[in-house]
Every structure is written in structure tokens, then in C-alpha cells.
Amino acid sequence: MKVNEYIELYEQHKYEGHSTIDSLLLTLNTLKQNREDWINQNKLGYFGIGLRFDKNPFFQPKVTQKNITIIGTIIDQLNALKASEDYQREGETAETRLKMLNILGTQCNELSKKGETQQLFNYVIQEEGSIDFSMRESSLITPSPVDILTEKREPYVDEQTWVCPSVQELIESKGIPGNLFDPAETDLTLEHDLHEHVQWAYNYIYQYAYPTSYEETPIARFHHGIQHVTRAANYARVFANLYRKYGDEEAQHLTENDIKLIQIALLFHDSAREGDNEDLWDHESAILLYYYLTRVLHVDRQTAKQVAEATANKDPSPEKGYFELNEDEDGQLSWQFSQFEEGLFPPKTIYQKIIHDCDCLDIIRARNQYDANYLDFYKEIASQNELALEEMAELIIEARGLIHHQGDSYITKDEASKLEYENEEAHARIIADMDSGAYPVLQALHERLLSVEELQTLTLVDLTPFDETAPMTEQNLTAALREGRILARGVTTPSALPKPKANKPILPDETLAEKEIRKSMRADGINTKSRKEPPNPKDKNPLRSTSILGYGSGVYPAAGLLIFNPNLKQIRRVSIEDFDSGRGQKAHLAHLQEKEYNESQEMVGQELDDLRQKMKLGLFGKKNQQGSNYVEILYDIDRYDAIFFTNDPTIGNYIAYDDFNPAHRFSPLLQAVYLQKQYERQYEATRAAYRERYGEEGEALFLQRFGSDPRLPIHEYSGLNNSLVPCDAALLTEENIVHMWVDMCSDFMRDSLLHLDEDTSHYVHDSFFYSLNVEDIKVCSMYKIKVNTLAQKNQPADLSYDEPLRKQVSDAIEKARENIVAEYEHSLLEKLGNNQESALSTTGFLVLQYSPHLREQAADKIKADLLDFVYSGELDACQLASISLPDVPISTLDIPHCNAKARNAFCKSKLIKAFILCQQSGLDNEAQLIRNKLGEWAEQLLSNNDSGESALNKRLKLRQLMMLMDPENPLLPAIDASVQALVSQLITEYAGNKSYLQSSHLLIKTLHAAGYPRSQYQDDFRVVFDKVNEVLPALRPSDWTYYVKVIKLLKEEPAPVITRWIAEYEDKIYNGEELLIAFKNLDFTFNDENLELFNVLVQKLHYNMQPRPYVQLSYWFKLIKELEGLTKNHQFSESQLKILSDRLGEMAGKLIEEAQLTSPFYSYYSQEHKGYLRLTSYAEEINTILKANSLPVPDSLINEFNAALSALDQFDLNQIQFNKARIHLVKAVHSQLPRPEERAHVLEKIADFMSTKAQDEKEAIKPSPAAGL
Length: 1269
Hints:
mainly alpha; 6 domains; eight-stranded mixed sheet; 50 helices; 52% helix; globular; disordered C terminus; SidE_PDE; HD/PDEase domain-containing protein; HD/PDEase_dom
């Protein structure tokens, strides 16, 4: 689904600290401006002038203008609301938020249906409305709040009534069997333990799937089953105690009887659901609760009514009323809306608050990003009390950890773990978890209602401040986590090799970890690797993505490095989520390092404080990206203090091998050990470099920066438990390291042997167990796979060990492998002997192929299975159509020497497996009977006169089988002749089709994949070559991909064909990359001897991928890079460079012409802003040329750049909306062009202006409680 950029922009403004109304105003102003721009831009297409804009078929100026008018009206109304006396006095309240939603709602239906603006309005109405009200539809109460707000339907009126269906109808509609509320069925009372109410709820309701559910799963209601409602019920006393502690009078008068009623209400709050998506059945669930209380527990009707109403009204109506549940003398239930007095919102009861907050807390299980703004406890208490906020933050952390422990978290749903709780014992098991010691706040508050005095003396969180002078003890680490003083820099798959880059040489022995650690230790040319001579002086590792640990925030990968007490001066950007800054060099963010963009330490400190406040509310990570549960801080790294690993699920794991969880419990720790040992190596190498560079003072300088200990301590981090625990160094002995490797690899090997029958032909690298060596096993046990989307390839994570330790690890794994294989093969032998496994099963067959010893021991069983296959009629029933062969040539039936595709194909055919085993077992007669079967198929095919590709494929398949199993078969020559006849026939048929060249190309591929000799069919394709040659000038560039196959098959000299085509082809060449690749595949070369031909091709290669008239320099330079691969020594000659330079000059003139033609149509921009856009446009084009680093920038472009920049010197800069990254680009271009001194003063003026303006804007923002600060 396409992301709505204006919803993202709105959320970004809220994150920056703007209030809801300001965030909306800023977003609407941008939207309005963009819509006006869009109208003006599309006008160009209709005038035929705007070369950069095509005519938009969906351009409807009247509709867009109407939307612009509506947006303008809303902006005016929102500004009026903001200026109102109520808003100025109280700020954002439920009342003012509702007024804002009414403004949006009244105009929403006038907008384009399903357009971005209407999507934005609907989003704001739902999201902001849900903070204070129920915005959901209801199965009983109509219309919905959203329909009322958007004026689709009339609002409720006082005493409006909705009659409820009978209880039996209600039960039947839910797919729940039996009479739920027959008092004769149970003797339960309110006084019974909650455990027994949970059992009743499960047995009578939650064990049954939704009526619309078509999936049969072990868990009837996956997201809203007994586990969720029981967990929510057990939060009730926790919230009650928190409300009591902080002075809520109603809460202080609660009794255990009240708590039991609230808990039962929570057990029933999802009872009437019919699906796991939006809850439309709140009022029906409240009815089932009412019946349970009155009919089963015999609670008086008035009490039951109050509890049921509290459940249905846990989120109040935006219509400022309350839904009452009434029962008449005949037992008929109805809901009645009661308008609250004087147009105010009815105050919430403590029942409503606790029911709401318990359900709201457990929504963590369904969200990547939690938001405590929705909690009544936060709105009323924690938002105004720092201690309450810290305790609430700890509660959120513990709830997240508890939910994950029970297999119910958003990032990883674990059905096996959930099954432990999705039963009638849910309550007992959840209580056991809460009392396990892992969740101190839950444990302290869930058991009983504590007195106010007890609560006042109870310490729930340790607020001891961080001590910069003290060592990182457990207490100091906890304080550092709470204060945001620990940064984590993750290294995903640290022992992997980086991917090679086109413009940079990569040393094959430098892993991702080596590169990361080396760069952090750069200084004055030390640890710098550069292709430039002398290398660029580099210092530190700037603009690296890091995460702040604490408050449950996760990390990107399973292991990495830590920075304690980071320097505020080195922080470049603070973000609540991963803002996709990218990997490697962050050229697009390089401006953040410049002086004018450096924020004051006070400002950075304020941003970090704001971030920590958001983290306390659970507001970190991306809302809708699973696994993105961390913040991002751009930091200039100059040292590391420790190493971390985590067994939490991480997105780095998922990117590396498609699973959020670690490959093994020891994988993250062993990655950390690898990092530790790699750091030691780099530490000593850097120490020596300092001594060499700085002489006697080198040692002191080195120790001042990196400390005296080469071994960084390792810590285990868990965001789910919000803990950072030092690993006992005494436990990380070489002996224990070896044991961990053996355990990890052994588990992998056992699991691999259990899955030998899996088809691995689609894997990029063969991971079949018997084909893996010890080094492969190390990689696969730690990273699951040998390939890596983040790097060139995975490597073993013991590369940083000393050689003796590496040998110990390898020898121990090899010994374990021998034992595991022997144990597995012994087990398989027993299964073969007991007829539990067949020699012809995939598993049995494969193991027998790799274990001659086992074949010898199981010889009798193998023969019995083969004889049964051959003589039982199974062989007779075999069909050629049931055999599939891979699309690669096959030369052997020797399984250990086959590729993965062939091995998997053979394993799917019982006939092939039987033939191989017959040969190995000396059953020559039976092997001959299988060969005879091939002969039967051959006779059948030869007797048929079928034609076409299907007939050809059958014969090719049979020919492959005969070549592998019966190469002396006398029918083989006839099959070859039949194949050749079909090939000739198909080529003749293709000649009459438009796609004959593509069809011929595919036919050649088919013949090659089937191993059919080239000599048998190449002459047949002469007709294809001749036909193309007749119409060569009309050959499309895209057809060259297919023509290459024919030319190479016939071994024709390509130069004359290519030369003629380039000279005679009359059109421009669009999307020329494929064409140049085709020429390269034919080994064609351009040199000074065919310079005119080179010139012709350069002129015909269009500067746009599509047949459009405007210039795309980035595309053109991509073509030129490909063209350079066709030159002598892959380097342009001086003459060729002159041709390219002239062509670039022509395109520069075209660019300037485009800019001049389109400029008059941007009248909606100020003169100043138009000049700024012209400047940045030229900067982008020049930067493209500079990055290509192959041709000089044309003088015409330089002159236009200079003129545009000089013009800015005369403008009022307040009329320009500057963008930091674009101005940085202008500065970068300026520094690489001639005569920079003539332009420097203008850039300094712009930098000073932007710096002053940014500082003023930041200081003007007043963080709003509604924005989550």
C-alpha cells in the first residue's frame, strides 16, 4: 500500500514537539502549496512548453482547485480555533481537540474521495479522536462517531434507544454452542477465585473460533483470546494501586470485591468479538458480561448494570454522553444514550479508567510503537508527576517483556509459547510469570490492594542518578540506561565481507567488524584506507547510526559496540525512529557536520531529554515497521567502551536471514566475542601506528583516547527486560568458547539432518548438510545462510581468534560432526531395518549416497526395496511426464558430485533413485529393466507425430535420461533425429512471427540446458541470422539481447553486424544499457580505429531512458560507464573523451534551454525562491557530472551556476525556503569548481542566515503535553 506522505509529515511535526493543531496547520500549508504547484506544473504539459513534465492524464484542475479552497478554509478555521479564548487559556484538551476534529469532519466529504487529503483527515480524526473518545463503529449503536463527525449521519439525541437482540440470538451469532447462562450449569459466585472465572470464560466462550473464521488453528482466537483478556484482568490491581498511590479518591475507596468485578469485566470485554480486527462489538460484549453477572453469579442488577456500562463506556463518546444499559420487566435489554449536562463530557469512573488502561496496556502485543498518551493514568497523573511517569514507564517495559515471554509480542508471535496460555490454566500461568522476579512492578502491585501508606513507602523504581566518576557497576549501568547515557552501534553479521563498490577497492580480508573498528580509531591518516595518493586525512567515524538504550528500546542487530556517556558535541541528529539514513558514507547528511548546522550542547541536550520523555511513553521505533523498535542517533564515533549482544528479536537478524530471532542462543554472544578479539587486534595495530606517527608522545596520546585495556568488556542487553548486564569475564574462557561453538554447531547439524528431504534447489548457495565443510557449518550455525544481503558473503566468526584457538574450535566441531553423523546413520539403519524408512525415500536415498558404510550395512534392505519397486508394478506405472529435470546440463548420476538442482530433481523421481541404487547394489538385471522402461517411452514418442515445443521438451528430457542411464540404447539416434526435425520445424514456424528472435533465443537456451550438442542444431539457426541480416537496420535495440545468442551459436564475426546496425539504425536509442551489455557479450571493442562509429553511437544514445525530450544526466553517465567497458583496456582514449565532452556540452545547452523555457510558468513562486530553485537545479546537474569523475563540467553550466548564485546575493533571503541538504550540495559543488573565492561570500551569507533562523525556530517551539512530551 502506498504511504501517504502527508500523514508521515504530520507525524514528523508532532515528533518535533509541535502541538496537534500546529502539526496539522504545518502539514496543511505544505499540502496546499504542493497542490498549487501541481496545478501549475501540469499546465506546462498542456501548453507544450514544460519539457520536464509530461501531460498528466489524470489532471483535473477544477477538482484540485476545489480541494485547495477547502484546505484554505480549514486552515483559517484552525487558526481561529487556536486564537480562541478557550484554547489560549487551556491549550489542547479533549474539548479543543473535538472542535478541531469537527472542523475536519465538516469538510471531509467535500474532498476528493480516497485522495491524500481525505486520507489525512480520516487519519487525524481516528488517531487524535481515539486519545479521548471511542471512534469505532458499533454493531449495535449507529451511526458511528466518525459518520457523525463527518456529517454523513445525524448525531445522537438524548434518550435515543437501541434495542438489543435476545441473548440466545446473540450467542448463536457468535458461533458459541449451548446455553451459556443457565444457572444450573455451575455454582460459581462472585466470591470464587479469578482462576475459576477464567476457566468458565475459556470453556464457554474463548475456546471457540470466531463464526467467520475459516482457518483451523490450535488457537481459536489468536489476538483476542483467553491469554489477552486474562493478562488484562491481572493488570487491574496494578493500575488500581497506582491510582491509589497518587491520590485518586475513587481508587482509594475500592474494595477487593470491586477489583473482582473489574477483572471479570476485563475477561468479558472481548467476549462478543467476531474477528481480530477493529472491535465493533463493545456493546455486545457488555451484554454478555451483564448476563454472566446476573444469571450465573447472581450479582444484583444495579451493580451488574454499572459494571457493564463501565465496560461499554471505557472510551467515552465524542457526542458528550453516556450509554446506559436498561432491562425491562420482560428481560429485554436496550442501550440508551444520555446526553450529559451543559454539553460537557461525563467524568470517567474509576471502573472505566482501570478497564480502559488494562486493555490499552496490553495493546503492546499488537503495536510496534506503543503510545502511553492514550492511558488515562498518564493523562490524569503521570503527565504531571515525574515519579509516576517513571513508574508507568517501568510498567510498560514489564508488560512488553511479559507479553514477549508468553509468545504474544508484535515482533515475533510464537504459537508454541502462546498455546501454554490459551487454555483454562491461563490465569495460573500468567500469575506464575508475574511472580517470577522478572517483573518487579507487576509482582509488587498485582497481588492485593495496598494501603496508601504501604504504597507511599514502596520503592518501585530506583532513581539513583548516574555517577560519571564511578565504574559501570550494575546500579550505575541502570542509571545510565534511564538517563540515556549509553549508545549502541550495531554490526550485523560482523564477520562478513563487505560488498565491493564500483568506485572503491575493497580489501577481501577486512570484515564488517574490522572496517567498523578501524574507522572508529582513525586519526591524522592513521587507519585510513584510500585509493587517493596521498590518502585523504580522516578522523573518527562520522555520522554513524547508533541507538540510545533504555526504556525498552531495542537495537538494530544481535551484537555491536557501546559508547558510555557520549559527548553531546558529537551528536548530529536525534530521531525517535530509524529515519533510513542509510549505510556507508552518508553524503546526503554530510551537511550535519558543518559548523553552521552544529547545534549548541544545550539544544542537543534538550532534544535528548525530549527523546527520553517519548521513550518513557513507549514512543520509539516506526509505527508500522515490524522489528523497528529503536531510536536513531547520528554520532561521530571516536572510541568504544564496551561490546553488547542481545538474544532479543532484532530487525538486523531478519534482514540477514529472514528471522527476527537469533539463529541460536549462543550466536549473539559468539558474535560479541568475535568483536572483542577483533578490537584487541585493532587496538594493538593502532597503538603501534601512534608510536610510529608521534614518536615518544604517541603512547600517551593513544592511551588518552583509547584507554589502557585492549579488551572491551561484553554486556548482555535486553530491551524487552530493559537490562544491561556485564558478562563475567571468567566465564569466557577458551574452553567455554569452544563448548559454545560445539553446542551451536551441533544443534545446527542435528536440525539439518532432520530436514534432509527439503528442496534446496532455490537457494543461492547449496546448504545441503553433507556438502558442508566445517567452515560452512560455523557460518550456517551462526547466520543460518552463507550468503548475505548486507555484505558480499558470510564468514566464520572465529577469524579473529589466534590460530591455536581456531584449530581447537574446528577440531571440536569436526569431532562432534563425526559423532552426530554416526548417531544419525545408526538411527536411520534401525529405521530401515524396522521398515520405518525406505531406501527409496528422499532421506534414506540421500544418506545412502553419502555413506558407503551405511549402504554396506543396509544392503539387504536396499535390495528388498529395489526388488519391490521393480516387480510390484510400480516401475510399470512410471510415466515420463512425472519426471522433472533441472534447467541446467547434467553430466552425472553421482549424487555427491551433482549440483543442488540436479540432486533435488533426482530425489523427486523414484525411477532415477532406483536405477542409481541398482547400479550400486549390483542388481544389473533390475537396472536393465529400468533402462527398458526408457526404451518403451522412446518407442511411444517416436510413434507419435506430435509437434511443437511440448513434443520437443519430452524428447529432450528422455534424451537426457538415456544419456545418463542408457547411452548405448539403439533408439538414441532416432530420438536425436526426432529432436533435430522438431527444431527445424519450430524455427520455420518462428520465422512467421513478430517475436521470432525472442523465440529463437529461448529455443537455444532450452537445447543448451538439455545438453543437446551444439553441432546438431546450430546450422538450423542460420535462417534466423540471415533473416535478421536482411532487415538489420530495423532491429530494435532490445532485440540485441536475443540476437547475441544466435550470433554466438553460429560463431559469426560480430563486428560487421554491429558496425552496420549502428550506422544504419535511424532512431534514437532508448534504454541503451541492455544494448551495450549485448555488445559486451559479443566482445566488441571501440577504439580510435572506429572513432566515427563511436561518435555515431554516442549521438544516438538518448539522454533519457524513455522517449522524452528532457535530459537525465545520471542515466546518461550510467550509459557512458557501460560504454567504457567496451573500450580498449576499459578506458576511453583522448579522442573518445573529446567526443563525449562535446556531447555533454550539447546536453548542457539543452538543460539551460529547459530551465529558461519552464521558468515563466512558475509565477506562483516568489522571484527569490525561483532563483534558489534554479541554483539548486544547476548544482544537482553539476554534481552528477562531478560524481561521474570522467568528463569536465561544461563552461556553460558553470556560468549559469555562478549567475544563479550571484543573483541570490541581491535577494531577501526571508523569501526563500532553504533546505539544508540542498545548500550543502551547492557548497560541495562550489568547492570543486574554478574560482571559488568569487562565490564564497554569498554562501557565507546564506549559512549565517540559515543558522540564525534555525536557532530562532527551535527556541520558538513550545513542547505540548499533547505531543507526548
